[in-house]
TrEMBL record:
This is Class I poly(R)-hydroxyalkanoic acid synthase. NCBIfam families: PHA_synth_I (TIGR01838). GO terms for biological process: poly-hydroxybutyrate biosynthetic process. Residues 108-280 form the Poly-beta-hydroxybutyrate polymerase N-terminal domain. It comes from Azospirillum griseum. Residues 282-524 form the AB hydrolase-1 domain. SUPFAM superfamilies: alpha/beta-Hydrolases. The keyword Ribonucleoprotein does not apply. It comes from the Bacteria. GO terms for molecular function: acyltransferase activity. Its main location: cytoplasm. The keyword Acyltransferase applies. The lineage of its organism: Bacteria, Pseudomonadati, Pseudomonadota, Alphaproteobacteria, Rhodospirillales.
Amino acid sequence: MAENQAPDVKLPDPVEMSRAMTRIAEQSQRLVSEFLSRQAAEGVGAKSPDPMGVGHAFLEMTTRMMADPAKLMQAQMTLWQDYLTLWQRTTQRMFGQDAQPVIAPSKEDRRFKDSAWDENTLFDFIKQSYLLSARWMQSTVNQVDGLDDHTAKKVDFYTRQFVDAMAPSNFVMTNPEVLRKTIETGGENLVKGLEHLLTDLERGKGELRISMTDYDAFQLGKNIAVTPGKVVFETPLMQLLQYTPTTPDVNKRPLMIVPPWINKYYILDLREKNSFIKWAVDQGHTVFVLSWVNPDETLAAKSFEDYMLEGPLAALGAIEKATGERDVNAIGYCLGGTLLASTLAYMAVKKDDRIKSATFFTTMLDFTEAGELSIFIDEEQLTFIEGQMAEQGYLDGAKMATTFNMLRANDLIWSFVVNNYLLGKDPFPFDLLYWNGDSTRMPAAMHSFYLRNMYQKNLLVQPGAVSLAGVPIDLTKVKTPTLFLSAREDHIAPWKSTYMGAQQFRGPVKFVLGASGHIAGVVNPPAANKYCYWTSDKLPKSSDAWLEGAKQTEGSWWPEWNNWVSQYADGKVPARQPGDGALKVLDDAPGSYAKVKND
């Protein structure tokens, strides 16, 4: 191509473009009509314009910032000096000279992975200008004196949300990859992206629910949640799954898994190669898993204690009927772990010792340092959430999913905005993201109790402050051997918070810290040979002291856990098949509860 020759530009097919725009117009008209109808039915303006209290937090921050104009002036001068340096170095690059960047994105920041962000002087300037402004904005709000801790965290969090949203990678004209795609396709990528946007709005009934994967690519029991097993028992809140053995002999003591009910149990059974459930079965465990119901308004009054009574306690009786074994080893994951710990405290009062060991996956018991989720827990926001639940009888699972996605907005929101809407690409089929999108509702009574008593008031670690089924519980009465597995990069259950919870029990406690986050840190099969974990024989008061003395081991922590739990296996017995005992088979795994979708 000659130096002054324009690049080839594809012209769009006028017939196809016309058809696409007609589809878009029809779809948009329908969405707008439905949105206006809902607004009229619900009553416009009936709800608080700022239910999260963000405006109040920023007003307080601004007031205190303006009270110290010298500090604000110094911050502005620092930004101006950074920009002056950037202009100088950009000019040097324009004249063919080498110039070191003033600021560079972190290695984990995938927004600027396209080579043009570094090689093209203009896009390099845009990138660095954004990074300097982002750093200035976040450091400025973080240095405001006089804010209470909760307001400071809220301001920092929502400032970061704004900064992430305004990244140049999120806009057509300032993203080199999108510009290149637009020229190559004659704008077809943007038309396709608009169709994706409207489809997601339609799927969310007027609210944007970004597609993270191809939801038609997976079907429970067919290519996800496929470990062979049976439903052998159920209550209004859960179905109990018993898995088919793969070894001639099994541990005498069964394994009961209590997953969280914020999402569905099959995070532990995605595919054969990364299924913790299948791996545990292959190690000789008779595995039982609670598959929680996806509740509707008819279960609005179900409480936290109902989840205990109709969940793990009911499962213990069912497991004894199925196997003849009174005792079990138990696992609780996240909120399921909080329930398991509460159940152990309840059983301690009742002198019930049927759980011989307990493992906690990324579980918080002490909510003193609850991480960024605590930003959403104050009186104003809780009142708003309770008002929503009072209308519906439950909290919509999509609202919970959005909250979790905001904790990692660049990875779980903006990367899909660029891929789906700007580049016009179809989402890639990904089992983990399919599970992430298969959210569940929260019954009103249970969720209000959990948010207020655990997150807001932190009553679980106060002896006798929480009562379940009329019994005041005390975690310090639990003497069951326990293993806590936490994840170093966990944004939902920060590992230092889970470590504080591990200090509550009075039995032998083993703490294991895995690499990665809330999901990948748990779903880390040995065959993948990924990440690492830390262990220590000691449990000092300080989490930092624990980590300083801990030993690092490469690979998965699963074998470490199996070695630990094997000491509570109580020997071996011939393998048990679902339906062999007093409980008959009701259905094939994954069962009907797991297949219930949100409307």
